[in-house]
């Protein structure tokens, strides 16, 4: 049978209560004459032999578990299980079983109803009556007791009865006395039986029995019984570990004896669950659910008792922040708090709320500020874990503390700055701690989890604080590692220093990538705060220096930062990019990458494709004018040709608008619009400079009104000559691979020099014709002349239509301002 739905594994339970795999085959349910009834047959898929032939008995309790298991008992000590490959197959066979037994297939245990009356009788009977007769607690009866305990595990009702019997007779304590006798007599067989008995009693999953077994007087004997696993040649030494190796550390002496007892008990029970007991199989996974709950509630109780003892916690905090406390003691105190916070995760939300508020009231944050700045790596690591619990619980609480602190302290010792410094100074080559801290910082500066109340808006208050007090600390490594880029801004543009600037150290590169990831997050979520910061620090120019890094992942981080900025489609950013000529390093990276088809190549092309698809006109004009000559050879994608097409379509639209306006209106309007645009733009940039006291982009000389042009013809000729020589320098250099290579102007003014005849940013204009791009000396010169001619023409109304047509063809740089 090839049907995978009916494909099963057959398991039987051995004497050691372990499941043995009897083989894989295909199951069917058919009438078997010999057994006189519907039966389950499993034939081996290897040779077709019969692996299982089992009559579906009307009184047998079948259990369906986890959607793909059917378990049942054939006889008192013979348990069987079918594990199906597919749920559908399990459901089909389950329906057949339920059909034979007259049960609804929605049940998970077919004999619940049969046992109902028995259950009712069981509940009605007085607790004192013995529902299961336990053998007398003697050495020669241990085997019988072990068989009884293991045999009831498959039946929930018999387990209940056995648990009640064990509880009523104080049987467990008698068993543990036998254990001491067996150990003294070195009765190995008896000790093996006791292992089975105690393990079986644990699997009864009864909290009342756990209370007895895990009491101070019994727990070490229970652990002792569990040392003698029959499967092991030598018994384990669990008691020796718990009494001698495992040391209970009291950072501050705990006076409450009940609390001490709870802590000891929880540790030992956790040890039994995690170390001594084998990992439960799929059939036993629910057997220890009560044990898990027992540990859970103990932890809740410990946290509550410690939390209520404010004297104890106050003492811990006092020692933690006391300069006289020695390093070892402080390490233990921090580790205690880390464990304490981990325990608190077991609390219900309202209790956890009270817990962290208690810690905040006692001064956890100022204490963390001190210990996070310490030299001891273990202490710092534990403090970071505690800080992460606090940030996850309530970012607002941490933000509020930091803002209050800023009113009293210097920037250097602010908690957030301490966290940033720890991130920057992480000594781990893989920056594990830095990655964790970066995640916490991101949570703190994420506007999504900031509150807006009627009195105040946390978002604006905290972000103002962060950008004034903390942002300079975060960006310091980035600015330091790209600092050579800003030196000698007025030097020859062709000096290509960039390749020596980028950090080649892998750890530094990783750190810069983390910082860039955080800054990219800020670009997406912080709008005007980050916009002002980028413009005032000329940050994008500095980031793009990293496009030359030998670490491709860092170059990609820099590119991703720029891509997020362009993705906002914000004209302020676009104007900043075009004025600063900031596409140049990106295009250089694309050309340097050559013909390699890699992630960097794809990411750069995606950036330009986004500009094309979204039709960002100002950027399209800038790219086509300045870089098309270098990019037109890239034909394996249509991106750059598409940009040129968009550009030309926009130019045609502007020309059509020009033609539809009477010439006298055009002249006056042209003159007014040009001035208005220039003044608006100048005002925006100057405002920014006045606010920050430092220019974002070097101020651009304001072009003179067209009326003054005839009086300054000589000056124009001088400018023309200077432009010629400058254009020679700015010609794209041909690289070894045959493509063009631009040199990255290191200052905004140098970048704008490339467009000196047309001194305003491309943003303020509608795109001119591609033939006038600054990538060619001759075309630039032609543009200078035609633009000037346009200036003269714009002052006078020429009735001659032919001259107007000629003017429109030759003056695409000035004319489009009409429609912008």
TrEMBL record:
Residues 682-692, 798-809 have a biased composition (Acidic residues). Residues 682-820 are annotated as: Disordered. InterPro entries: ARM-like (IPR011989), ARM-type_fold (IPR016024), EVH1_PP4R3 (IPR055236), P4R3-like_central_dom (IPR006887), PH-like_dom_sf (IPR011993), PP4R3-like (IPR051137). GO terms for cellular component: centrosome; chromatin; cytoplasm; nuclear speck; protein phosphatase 4 complex. It comes from the Eukaryota. Residues 5-101 form the PP4R3 EVH1-like domain. GO terms for biological process: DNA damage response; gluconeogenesis; positive regulation of gluconeogenesis; regulation of double-strand break repair. Belongs to the SMEK family. This is Protein phosphatase 4 regulatory subunit 3B. It comes from Rhinolophus ferrumequinum (Greater horseshoe bat). PANTHER family: ATP SYNTHASE GAMMA-RELATED (PTHR23318), SERINE_THREONINE-PROTEIN PHOSPHATASE 4 REGULATORY SUBUNIT 3B (PTHR23318:SF18). Residues 762-789 have a biased composition (Polar residues). Residues 745-761 have a biased composition (Low complexity). It holds the Pfam family PP4R3. Residues 701-732 have a biased composition (Basic and acidic residues).
């Amino acid at each position: 049978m090839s049907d995978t739905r009916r494909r099963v594994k057959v398991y039987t339970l051995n004497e050691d209560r372990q499941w043995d795999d009897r083989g894989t085959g295909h199951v069917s349910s058919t009438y078997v004459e010999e057994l006189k009834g519907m039966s389950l047959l499993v034939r081996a898929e290897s040779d077709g032999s019969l692996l299982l032939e089992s009559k579906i008995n009307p009184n047998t309790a079948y259990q369906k578990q986890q959607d793909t298991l059917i378990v049942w008992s054939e006889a008192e000590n013979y348990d069987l299980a079918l594990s199906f490959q597919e749920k559908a197959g399990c459901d089909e066979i389950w329906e057949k079983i339920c059909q034979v037994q007259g049960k609804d297939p929605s049940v998970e245990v077919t004999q619940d109803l049969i046992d109902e009356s028995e259950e009712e009788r069981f509940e009605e009977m007085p607790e004192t009556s013995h529902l299961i007769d336990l053998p007398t607690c003697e050495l020669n009866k241990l085997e019988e007791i072990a068989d009884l305990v293991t045999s009831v595990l498959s039946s929930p009702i018999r387990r209940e009865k056995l648990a009640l019997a064990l509880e009523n007779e104080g049987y467990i304590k008698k068993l543990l006395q036998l254990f001491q006798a067996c150990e003294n007599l070195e009765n190995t067989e008896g000790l093996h039986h006791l292992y089975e008995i105690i393990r079986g009693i644990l699997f009864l999953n009864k909290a009342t029995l756990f209370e007895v077994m895990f009491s101070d007087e019994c727990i070490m004997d229970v652990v002792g019984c569990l040392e003698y696993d029959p499967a092991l040649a030598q018994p384990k030494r669990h008691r020796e570990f718990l009494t001698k190796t495992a040391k209970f550390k009291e950072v501050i002496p705990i006076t409450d004896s009940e609390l001490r007892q709870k802590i000891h008990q929880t540790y030992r029970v956790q040890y039994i669950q995690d170390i001594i007991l084998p990992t439960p199989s799929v059939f036993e996974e629910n057997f220890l659910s009560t044990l898990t709950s027992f540990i859970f509630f103990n932890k809740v109780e410990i946290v509550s008792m410690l939390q209520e003892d404010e004297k104890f916690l106050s003492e811990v905090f006092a020692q933690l922040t006391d300069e006289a406390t020695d390093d070892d003691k402080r390490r233990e105190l921090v580790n205690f708090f880390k464990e304490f916070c981990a325990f608190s995760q077991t609390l219900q939300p309202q209790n956890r709320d009270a817990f962290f508020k208690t810690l905040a009231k006692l001064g956890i944050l100022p204490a963390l500020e001190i210990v996070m700045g310490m030299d001891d790596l273990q202490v710092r690591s534990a403090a970071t874990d505690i800080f992460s619990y606090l940030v996850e619980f309530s970012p607002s609480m941490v933000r509020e503390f930091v803002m209050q602190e800023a009113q009293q302290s210097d920037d250097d010792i602010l908690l957030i700055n301490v966290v940033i410094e720890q991130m920057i100074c992480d000594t781990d080559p893989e920056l594990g701690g830095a990655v964790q801290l970066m995640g916490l910082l991101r949570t703190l500066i994420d506007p999504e989890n900031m509150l807006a109340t009627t009195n105040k808006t946390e978002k604006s208050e905290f972000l103002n604080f962060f950008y004034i007090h903390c942002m300079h600390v975060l960006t310091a490594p980035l600015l330091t590692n790209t600092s050579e880029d800003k030196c000698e801004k007025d030097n020859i543009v062709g000096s290509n220093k960039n390749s020596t600037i980028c950090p080649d150290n892998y750890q530094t590169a990783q750190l810069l990538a983390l910082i860039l990831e955080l800054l990219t997050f800020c670009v997406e979520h912080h709008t005007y705060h980050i916009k002002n910061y980028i413009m005032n620090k000329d940050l994008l120019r500095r980031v793009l220096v990293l496009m030359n890094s030998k670490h491709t992942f860092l170059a990609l981080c820099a590119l991703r930062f720029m891509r997020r900025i362009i993705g906002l489609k914000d004209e302020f950013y676009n104007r900043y990019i075009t004025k600063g000529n900031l596409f140049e390093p990106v295009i250089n990276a694309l050309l340097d990458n050559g013909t390699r088809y890699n992630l960097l190549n794809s990411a750069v092309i995606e950036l330009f494709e986004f500009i094309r698809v979204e039709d960002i006109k100002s950027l399209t004009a800038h790219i086509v004018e300045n870089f098309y000559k270098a990019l037109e050879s890239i034909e394996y994608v249509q991106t750059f040709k598409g940009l040129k097409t968009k550009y030309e379509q926009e130019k045609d639209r502007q020309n059509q608008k020009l033609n539809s306006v009477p010439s006298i209106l055009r002249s006056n309007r042209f003159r007014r619009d040009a001035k208005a645009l220039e003044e608006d733009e100048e005002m925006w940039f100057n405002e920014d400079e006045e606010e920050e006291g430092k220019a974002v982009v070097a101020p651009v000389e304001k072009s003179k009104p067209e009326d003054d042009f005839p009086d300054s013809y000589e000056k124009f000729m001088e400018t023309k000559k200077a432009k010629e020589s400058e254009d020679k320098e700015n010609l794209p250099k041909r690289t070894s691979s045959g493509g063009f290579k631009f040199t990255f102007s290191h200052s905004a003014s140098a970048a704008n020099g490339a467009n000196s005849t047309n001194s305003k940013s491309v943003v303020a204009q509608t795109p001119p014709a591609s033939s006038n791009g600054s990538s060619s000396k001759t075309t630039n010169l032609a543009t200078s002349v035609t633009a000037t001619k346009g200036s003269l023409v714009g002052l006078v109304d020429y009735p001659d239509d032919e001259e107007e047509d000629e003017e429109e063809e030759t003056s695409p740089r000035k004319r489009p301002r009409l429609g912008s």
